Amino acid sequence: MISTQIDSGFLFSMGGIALIILFMSLAIFGWLTVRNRNIRSFEFQITVFIIVYIIGEIIEDYKIPSLLSLPYIGSQIHIASAVLLAIIVWLRLYSVRKSGRMIDKLESVEYGNVNGAK
After folding, report:
1. If we measure between CA atoms, which residue out of 97, 89, 104 comes closest to residue 42?
2. Which residues on neighbouring strands pair with residue 113, listed in sequence order?
3. CA 11, CA 67: separation in Å to the nearest integer?
4. CB-side exposure of 115: number of CA atoms within 13 Å?
5. What is the number of other CB atoms lying within 10 angstroms of the CB of residue 56?
6. Which residue stretches of the chain have pLDDT < 70?
């Protein structure tokens, strides 16, 4: 028979590792944000996303007694951070397409007709 019980110490250590990785990424993007000093920069937007995600992770992992009346608030904050990330990426794509500054343009490549290939 397969045991369906999960060792809570293992899960606690994985939650701790996840928070350590999140704080490391917050430090990296926070440093880049301070260096650039621009609220419209991608680094600032990702820093805000990481902060919201960390708040959701802390609330979900460490059941805060004052928030026990809201049982799934940590998961809802995770969803809100995912929606925030989707909005950030979508607005950046929209602004790039609107301005016409596309990095790559798709070109048809036929067999034997590749420009610059040897």
Report:
1. 89
2. 110
3. 21
4. 3
5. 20
6. 1-13, 15, 102-118
